[in-house]
UniProtKB/TrEMBL annotation:
InterPro entries: DHFR-like_dom_sf, RibDG_C, Riboflavin_Biosynth_HTPR
Name of a matching Pfam family: RibD_C
Origin species: Streptomyces antimicrobicus
Domain Bacterial bifunctional deaminase-reductase C-terminal: 3-182
Protein name, entry field: Dihydrofolate reductase family protein
Source organism superkingdom: Bacteria
Length: 194
């Protein structure tokens, strides 16, 4: 069975974006060594329109994910710049109750029961499913998330959009990997204890 992994960038104090959800400032904290590592280890998480800048070609194989699911706010970040298919190299889903139709034929909308849809996607063959964001979608799917890959950037925000808006509960995780970089970034991987 496929797994759902929340692969997300965060500040040291656990925020994935400003209070309005904007997390573009994290991109300015990606130095060359860290970018090379991301492109080698998680090439499928690099937006399609950025592939050439990082030396990724159409033949670059996905290592972890072949499907991405994101909330409307996460999708809107690229859409504002005219990017209608941010991860064209993956099967793309956007969760939205307000979009009447998909802005791109390569992007499928989920307007109904997202938990049921994720459970159905998990039953299909293939690589893992990447939960791209954001906080509300992570809360809806909290019991379906099998793993977390948390990219922590060396910045303290004080307030902002949290990793998840799920209610308080002790949800056990097992640390499976930690990578650290000279620029102060760390990547921590956790498996869900069931």
């Amino acid at each position: 069975m496929r797994t759902l992994t929340y692969f997300v960038a965060t500040s040291v104090d656990g925020f994935i974006g400003a209070p309005d959800g904007d997390g573009e400032f994290f991109n300015r904290m990606v130095d060359r060594e860290y970018a090379r590592w991301l492109a080698a280890e998680y090439p499928e998480t690099i937006p399609t329109h950025v592939h050439a800048q990082l030396g990724l070609g159409a033949d670059t194989p996905a290592r972890h994910f072949d499907t991405v699911i994101m909330g409307r706010g996460t999708y809107d970040v690229g859409l504002k710049d005219g990017v209608t298919s941010p991860y064209g190299h993956l099967e793309q889903y956007v969760v939205s109750r307000s979009l009447a139709g998909s802005p791109d034929p390569a992007v499928q909308l989920i307007s109904g029961d997202v938990v049921a849809r994720v459970r159905e996607l998990k039953q299909r063959p293939g690589l893992g499913i990447w939960l791209c964001g954001g906080a509300d979608l992570a809360a809806q799917l909290v019991d379906e998330i099998d793993a977390f890959v948390v990219k922590t950037y060396p910045v303290l925000l004080g307030t902002g959009m949290p990793m998840s808006r799920a209610g308080f509960a002790l949800r056990g995780l097992e640390l499976t990997r930690v990578e650290s970089f000279p620029g102060g970034q760390t990547v921590s991987a956790y498996a869900r204890r069931r």
